[in-house]
Write a structure and sequence with these properties.
Length: 198
């Protein structure tokens, strides 16, 4: 059992909380208020960022002390949205939210994952017609091992998980969010994920 805090109580945070609690983990879900987030992060071993990516860097930098020594799982994408509310461009072109988080939080082990799919797939990867891929980006091998275990608890088979390497590889997966509005416009709001097939 791992003590997990999820920052963000929307669709992503709520679905992750229910699934991880069902897998036997102790959960705390915080809203976006600083006090709630600080209290949740302080007692957790793993903190999952499920807040909107555009405000994540400022929000999490304020929790530097509470996140010291913790694993921070970043599932967000930092984008500038278009008039329809869908991602139109990246907030950190040439870099990534995950890299900025790791730089701002040097004593926190940041792992990027679950940001290349519709939120429903995060906790139900077997619901798709073919196996999706969950990517891992991060500098700490032990942190990535822990996150692999959490992904397994969410139903991800090990062969569906691809470790891309250091935190700088997150810029590739974060850029994949630019597919999202086009996929939704062409196919509707249905579950989808990026899948690497070999």
């Amino acid at each position: 059992m791992t003590m997990i805090a999820i920052l963000g109580n929307g669709r992503v945070g709520g679905s992750l909380a229910r699934a991880l609690m069902g897998a036997g983990h102790e959960m705390t879900v915080a809203d976006r208020s600083p006090g709630s987030a600080a209290d949740a992060a302080r007692t957790a071993q793993v903190v999952i960022n499920a807040t909107p990516g555009a405000g994540s860097l400022e929000r999490l930098t304020a929790l530097r002390e509470e996140l010291r020594g913790k694993i921070l799982v970043d599932a967000s994408n930092a984008t500038v949205n278009g008039p329809d509310g869908l991602p139109a461009s990246l907030l950190h072109p040439g870099s990534s939210l995950a890299e900025h988080l790791q730089e701002a939080l040097p004593d926190t082990r940041v792992v990027k994952t679950l940001n290349t799919m519709l939120y429903t797939v995060m906790t139900a990867p077997t619901a798709l017609a073919q196996a999706p891929t969950a990517f891992l980006s991060g500098n700490d091998p032990e942190a990535k091992r822990v996150v692999r275990g959490l992904l397994a608890d969410l139903g991800w088979q090990q062969e569906w998980i691809t470790d891309l390497g250091g935190i700088e590889t997150a810029r590739a997966t974060e850029a994949a969010v630019l597919f999202v509005p086009h996929v939704i416009r062409s196919s509707g709001f249905a579950p989808f994920a990026i899948s690497i097939t070999r």
